[in-house]
């Protein structure tokens, strides 16, 4: 990954990537989609202070996209980006667009990236072509090979350094044809696709932190993190564990003492379903151990109470040696649910 693209990583992780109606994509790519204000509709703009719709300098239609930067502009570059689900198939994905430049000191670039479960599978940009200076409208393209394991496609345009750059009449092609004509595939839905209760926020309003609440929240944090990596239904992606945290929080915040909060946690864990006893249980390989995990706290009945401690120890004791994670597909902005494949003995 190039140095400048690393700075875009944070913005990419925050982008939702749901199945979309392709009928409006042509207008979004050509900047003709209905909009309000100076920013283009359908695009994410991490640097809105430098990005403008332009109706004076266009390649086609009524609008183009202009990026304008000064020598003292914040950050190294400004740009736009868009996330799309990989719900199509083909051999090559190409992003084309017309670019116009004026006194660009560094470079402008179209870019395209394919992502799988966690890391980038393919990436291409115009950075290597060093498009800079002043030039009239010219069409450029970048392309990546299609990867069957890809989940998300990101496209964008940026200006590095100072100057002005325009982009217009962009096209996203699959094997030379518009993306909306590419054969569609139906990705299996995961819990992240179906559990949308807290997409707009946690719905938690916390106005006061008392010593009891702080203690209860600290215990909840420990239990939530422990279950995330040790409970088979969570580690295998059967629960949206980030949102499950929001579901139990009101009961924990309302608890007037630790015993009541611990009892709520016991009920919460029970709601996940009966825990099956493992036939082949995980054990810890001491020869590969650099730092032993400190899990003594799950046996602290004075703090957790006998019932919660017993449940947590049962979860730890009955971990299978591997957890199938194929049912989980990560989304930008969500915490990653990892399976616990280490071998460990229960305390």
Hey, roughly how much beta strand do the residues contain?
25-35%
Going by CATH, the homologous superfamily of the largest domain would be Galactose-binding domain-like
- Whole-number average pLDDT? 86
> CATH top level of the largest domain?
Mainly Beta
CATH architecture of the largest domain: Sandwich
Q: Compute the CA-based radius of gyration.
A: 25 Å
- State the helical fraction: 10-25%
Q: What form results from the Cα inertia axes? A: elongated
Number of helices: 10
Helix vs. strand class: alpha+beta
Q: Uncertain runs with pLDDT below 50, 5 residues or more?
A: 323-347
What CATH calls the topology of the largest domain is: Jelly Rolls
Question: How widely separated are the two ends?
Answer: 43 Å
Kindly give the count of domains.
2
- Number of DSSP-assigned strands: 9
Characterize the biggest β-sheet.
9 strands, antiparallel
Task: Summarize the helix and strand pattern as letters.
Answer: HHHEEEEEEEEEHHHHHHH
Tag the structure with descriptive keywords.
single chain, 347 residues, alpha+beta, Jelly Rolls, 2 domains, 10 helices, 24% helix, 25% strand, elongated
How do you describe this structure in short?
With 347 residues, this protein is an alpha+beta fold.
Can you tell me about this structure?
24% of the residues lie in helices and 25% in strands. It has 347 residues and is of the alpha+beta class. The protein folds into 2 domains: 3-185, Sandwich (Jelly Rolls); 192-317, no CATH class. Strands 1, 2, 3, 4, 5, 6, 7, 8 and 9 form a 9-stranded antiparallel sheet that branches. Helix 7 runs antiparallel to helix 8. The radius of gyration is 25 Å and the shape is elongated. Residues 323-347 have low confidence and may be disordered.
């Amino acid at each position: 990954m190039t140095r400048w693209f690393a700075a875009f990583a944070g913005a990419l992780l925050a982008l939702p990537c749901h199945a979309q109606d392709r009928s409006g994509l042509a207008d979004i790519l050509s900047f003709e989609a209905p909009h309000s204000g100076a920013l283009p509709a359908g695009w994410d703009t991490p640097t809105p202070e430098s990005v403008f719709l332009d109706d004076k300098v266009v390649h086609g239609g009524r609008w183009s996209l202009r990026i304008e930067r000064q020598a003292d502009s914040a950050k190294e570059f400004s740009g736009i980006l868009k996330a799309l689900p990989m719900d199509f198939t083909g051999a090559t994905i190409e992003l084309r667009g017309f670019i116009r430049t004026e006194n660009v000191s560094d470079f402008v670039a179209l870019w395209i990236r394919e992502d799988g479960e966690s890391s980038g599978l393919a990436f291409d940009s115009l950075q290597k072509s060093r498009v800079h200076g002043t030039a009239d409208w010219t069409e450029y393209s970048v392309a990546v090979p299609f990867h069957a394991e890809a989940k998300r496609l990101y496209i964008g345009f940026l200006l590095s350094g100072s100057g002005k750059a325009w982009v217009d009449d962009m096209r996203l092609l699959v094997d030379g044809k518009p993306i909306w004509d590419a054969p569609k595939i139906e990705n299996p839905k995961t819990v992240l696709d179906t559990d949308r209760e807290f997409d707009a926020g946690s719905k938690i309003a916390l106005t006061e932190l008392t010593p009891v609440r702080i203690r209860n929240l600290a215990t909840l944090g420990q239990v939530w993190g422990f279950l995330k990596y040790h409970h088979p239904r969570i580690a295998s992606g059967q629960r949206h564990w980030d949102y499950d945290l929001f579901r139990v929080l009101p009961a924990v915040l309302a608890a007037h003492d630790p015993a009541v909060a611990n009892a709520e946690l016991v009920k919460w864990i029970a709601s996940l379903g009966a825990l099956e006893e493992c036939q082949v249980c995980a054990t810890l390989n001491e020869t590969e151990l650099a730092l032993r995990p400190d899990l003594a706290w799950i046996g602290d009945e004075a703090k957790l109470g006998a019932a919660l401690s017993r449940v947590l120890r049962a979860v730890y004791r009955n971990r299978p040696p591997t957890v199938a994670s194929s049912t989980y597909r990560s989304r930008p902005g969500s915490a990653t649910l990892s399976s616990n494949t280490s071998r460990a003995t229960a305390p």
